[in-house]
Amino acid sequence: MTATRSFDYDVKNIELADDGKRRIEWAEREMPVLRLIRERFSEEKPLQGVRLIACAHVTTETANLVRALQAGGAESLLIASNPLSTQDDVAASLVNDWGVPVFAIKGETTETYNRHVRTALDFHPEIIIDDGSDVVATLIKEREQQVREVIGTTEETTTGIVRLRSMEAAGVLAFPAIAVNNAQTKHFFDNRYGTGQSTLDGIIRATNILLAGRTMVVIGYGWCGKGVALRARGMGSNVIVTEIDPIKAIEAVMDGFRVMPIMEAAPLGDIFVTVTGNRHVIDSSHFDLMKDGAIVCNSGHFDLELNLVGLRELSSAPTILRPFVEEYVMKRTGRRVIVLGEGRLINLAAAEGHPASVMDMSFANQALSVEYLIRKKGELKAGVHLLPQEVDTEIASLKLRALGMSIDTMTSEQLEYISSWETGT
Length: 425
Hints:
About 45% of the residues lie in helices and about 15% in strands. By secondary structure, it is an alpha/beta fold. The termini are far apart.
């Protein structure tokens, strides 16, 4: 049933709602854990009356998270966390069919994005679900008087957690933050399997190129980089990894990948993918060395992983070859560099992001983190916290059950053995 719209919203076209609803319901089929949480929330109402804002990629999976929070009694508002990651039909459906104020338009300008962040803060949230910590950073810098209203925040990304830890070190983080990204059922699965598959999906949808036989350079070998490298090799690519961490570099070598500095990899790569969470990991000097027709994209949170300002200085004005594909011609050499998705997350700019079955666990973490913050209101100290291990384990157990799988449990003899020091050789 269509919700009564007696609230403000900003979406591309409300008439897209029917398409969005069908896709939201399709994604739900692959999200059994979140569905179980939503059913419990509907009965218990643990979030009753709590004002909550979510800054997230507005996708079918996020829509199902918002539905769960709404079922728990939260008064919710949703904004996009990235200008190119919104699915406009999903945004329309959340407004039209579930009565959620949504402020998100695919392709929105930075000015519009910042206005939406401030609109969300005008809602006076008690809980913030953030993706990159832009909302929390804006709150602390511009709305000091509102900080005391916040019970806590949850953070979805590595980039956002780095920012939160910097805020904590600077003494400006005045409320608890749950590092959702660091839950095992998030980063082991979402980052590795989700990013691995969806990044290649975005590259292929944008370009329709064959990956087999091409040299792909993966910049960064964290969980996201591991996923991209693994899937690229599975598609037949020759994979090179660049790293700054010697332990991760050795791991990449042991996993069978070539490892070298980016300056050595720049002339060799056909496709470059950044997944570091840092800035200018592909810089002007690297662009200048790339072969003719090299394809460059980013799957980290912010587009600043690529120094696009430097690229523009080295090249002529870009030509749009097809949606999400821009060609830059280097002034010095005449070689062409192809940038995908304006340097923003290619898996969301040109594709649909992670598969719903992976986001099922990530967003189960988000929903239970919100419940945990509310239950522990006044008890948790300001700063960055991990979600308790038992919650992580519960999510994994629910996922296994939903997949129709079971595992062993320890016998009483085994439990006694691992808790004793007396038995040896």
